[in-house]
Amino acid sequence: MPSEQQKRKEQLTARIQWHYIDSENRYGSPRIWNELQKEGWIVAEKTVSNIMRDHGLRSCMSRKFKVMTTDSKHDLPISPNLLKQNFKATAPNQKWVADITYIPCRQGMLYLASVLDLCTKQVVGWKLSDRMTTELVTEALDQAYKAKKPKKGLIHHSDRGSQYASKEYRNKLKKYKIKASMSRKGNCYDNACIEAFHSILKRELIYCSPKFKTKQEAFEKLYRYIEFFYNRKRSNSTLGYMSPCRFEEQFYRKQAV
């Protein structure tokens, strides 16, 4: 007859496996440990790590994959660097960061333009296209603005890519009363937060799955990952292991008190 200690370990292992599968094999021991704490489990993170190792439960590992998505060789106007690597924001819709990344697909090249809120870490706007155009980034910005309706003075930071420096994009920022900010030349750290999100997306979705067969499949899986997993479910260590949407909800709830 199994002892109480053995029963507890079996129950703990079952919960660890559940959280691992529920995250679609994306969570490592720190995040699963935090989920267990939320459920009331008193357990050391090392114990969770050991159980995961013993059962072959490993979070997705990244692979190097680099495609150039920034065309800074142009004569378009460059906005000043207002952000200056100050990635802290005290409220939603104070600072947004934007970038483009490559998404591999068997049917043809795809590009993802994303807009991220630095306070909530929420992806507030995104667009997928087979062309890296000004329209791509403009539609991502439009989606973000319509969703959040930010007040005047929001800082929008991007790299020096021709899409973000274009007249059309600058006019759109002006229309929305958003302040444009751009990274210094050749300094990837100036836009590190949005690049970190794209790295997470590739590690947890792109590199853990077979290459997308069609563009429609790519869109559907990106939509599911961004809107339902990353924004609404995935715990973020910088947010006290809350999801971006949960953090935003709590922020506004506290403001209403």
Automatic annotation (TrEMBL):
Short name of any one Pfam family annotated for the protein: rve
Residue stretches in coiled coil: none
GO BP annotation list: DNA integration
An example Gene Ontology molecular-function term: nucleic acid binding
InterPro entries from the UniProt entry: HTH-like_dom, Integrase_cat-core, RNaseH-like_sf, RNaseH_sf, Transpos_IS3, Transposase_IS3/IS150/IS904
SUPFAM superfamilies with a match to the protein in the record: Ribonuclease H-like (SSF53098)
Domain Integrase catalytic: 88-252
Function: Involved in the transposition of the insertion sequence.
PANTHER family: TRANSPOSASE INSF FOR INSERTION SEQUENCE IS3B-RELATED (PTHR46889), TRANSPOSASE INSO FOR INSERTION SEQUENCE ELEMENT IS911B-RELATED (PTHR46889:SF4)
Descriptive protein name: Transposase InsO family protein
Organism the protein comes from: Fontibacillus phaseoli
